[in-house]
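Backbone geometry:
***
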Amino acid sequence: MLKLLVFLLLSSCSFFISRIDTPLVKNDKIERGPGKATYCNLDKKFQIQLVGTNELSQNTYLDMAQKDFGKLDFFDHFALWSLLQLSIRPDQSSATSRLQVLIQHEEKSFYFDFFSENPEDQYPYFYGIEWILRKFGKKTNLESYARILEASLGKKLKLGKDLEGFLIEHQEAIKSDPVLQSFYFRGNEILKEDESTPHVSFLEIIRAYRKVEKNQKIVINTYLTPFMTNKGQNGRCNYDFNLYDNSIFLIDKVIPVANLFGLSREKSAFMASSSQKIEKVMPLGNSPLFKGESKVRSSAVCVIENEKNRIWAFSNQSRDPGQHLFHLVRYGLPRSQAVPEIDRLIRHSRHLFLSDPVRLIIESERSRGDQIENLLKLNLPIYNAEKLGNIWSYSSLNGNSRFIIDDRNPGAFVCR
């Protein structure tokens, strides 16, 4: 009986996979919600592009960097924008967070993933930033970048919607901790969106890192698993698509959270994901940063590139973020030749296969009628979801590079 059950389960999964492996056509109808813009104007040329969780922080950064714009190279921007995330998302971009980074430099893509198996006094976020700087020949230390930020920021940064959600969810624990309460409460009220963020002493946190720097046991992963579609397109991902091809899904019990951000300048770009597991809400030292563990489910990352073009994709906010990129590749992401094509694929209806019990979750509001009809033929319970997952992309196609965010979730981009 057990063997029969396993056979039926795998058969249902295989049928599910075959049903999604259908390329989209131009006359497909896709619900676009309120028409949220998801990438910068394609008709203009920009010196620099930023992507992150709130627009105000991006404009603040660019105003600050404008003064020394001629002196800052791409890797200076990488370090500064990454460090600034500590003020923007102290819950998921803390010194204790896991850091995943894709870098485009000299027409090549490089992947780096930094985390620690040991939760005590480990700072993979700082370690990763400095390790990347050294790899690409930068000798500037973190302290130098911290001084630039502290001299320029003041109280110009405002809370974004994602951080507000975290604070509201954990406000009782924050209120009960004297350090965190002093940063995140005004009287009896937790800070809300558009209020000033607490001051982060970057130098103080980096000094704490230096004290334990020699004891860092950081795992550094640079490998991505190759894949090839049945149409002959190939790419590399940090999730093994062979598992999905064989109906083996990597389903988590919870939905991991991550902070996505990126920057491009001239012919170089980076896109990153930072995340951590917070078992107990507590501060990192006496700072407004939240202490966590970096051994956490990673965001799914894919790279599709040849000599002229490249497409990156990051997927998070899902119990199986790799499954969404697997579907996106099956829908035709490797065949995309322009930013609007990628945007259209990201906006398209998603579905997610889950187990215990076996079921299918689908964004029915974004689906075509014939798709729903086909899925209803599956011998599986099907449930509706308003939105599934979060996918951001970066593309450099025919000399035109753009970040593309997901219209389902908070996110912003600025181009100058």
In short: The longest helix spans residues 2-20. The two ends are 63 Å apart (CA to CA).
